[in-house]
Amino acid sequence: MTINWFPGHMAKTRREIKENLRLVDVVIEMRDARIIRSSRNPDVEDICGVKPRIILLNKSDLAEENITALWIKYLSVDNIRVLPVNCHTGQGLKNIKTEMNRLLKEKHDRMKKKGISKITDRAMVIGVPNVGKSSLINKLAKNKIAKVGDRPGVTKSKQWIKTKLGIELMDTPGILWPKLESRETRLNLAYTGAIKDEIVDMEELALNLVKFLKKYYPDRLEKRYKLDKLSENPADNIENIARKRGAIISGGRVDYNRVSVLILDEFRGGKLGSISLERP
């Protein structure tokens, strides 16, 4: 599956992020808790340098808690804090201010010595498309200021948003990187909807997902689709799921597109349970 998706606004956003970095105190980098490695833009370290960073592992309710805990331990260093969150429910978001205060303690102490008591910190929110940046901002601002969509590429331009936490947030459009070298990365981003469905082969995508689930989460497949026994051939499992769900067309043939979309939608919606596609 070859995917190279780097629209013009993404190249522009990359330049703007680097230019605007001096305006913020902290970078809030969002990743998908199910694909923590694949939802990391490898350009982030180069762009952000030594700027303090908070990594939010969004949709943590859809990932295995013990795997997420391993990732948090793996990613945490002196100037980087890692938090599992759910931007839809707001779970874990209150910890952002606490961690930001820890990262900016020296700055706050200097300002207090100068007699400045009211301190407003600024943060830039970055991440790949469809990872939940706008949902985060809306939740913190308690208002639907940032545009939200269930598809990548909804946010198109820079926005400053005030929150009740004493933090001003700079929203930015989601950015991927110019070339997705790793097959695993391409698949994981497509599984979770970070890459537009219109430019991927949904049948091939579902086939690979079922193959992965059969290896690591066979019980989830059997339980969700009421399968008596999984086949070693993922195509057979796709066909069995289609027949269980009535994804059949004239002549008793399997509607592969329909069953593929069904499987991917149910995975993305958490109906197959908490699933982590990557380990540290």
TrEMBL record:
Compartments it resides in: Cytoplasm
PROSITE patterns found in the cross-reference section: G_CP
Keywords from the UniProt entry: Cytoplasm, GTP-binding, Nucleotide-binding
Membership in a protein family: Belongs to the TRAFAC class YlqF/YawG GTPase family. MTG1 subfamily.
Record flagged with keyword ATP-binding: no
Keyword Cytoplasm: yes
Listed InterPro entries: G_CP_dom, GTP-bd, GTP-bd_ortho_bundle_sf, GTP-bd_ribosome_bgen, GTPase_MTG1, P-loop_NTPase
Biological role: Required for a late step of 50S ribosomal subunit assembly. Has GTPase activity.
Protein name (record): Ribosome biogenesis GTPase A
Primary location: cytoplasm
Domain of life: Bacteria
PANTHER family: MITOCHONDRIAL RIBOSOME-ASSOCIATED GTPASE 1
CP-type G domain span: 11-178
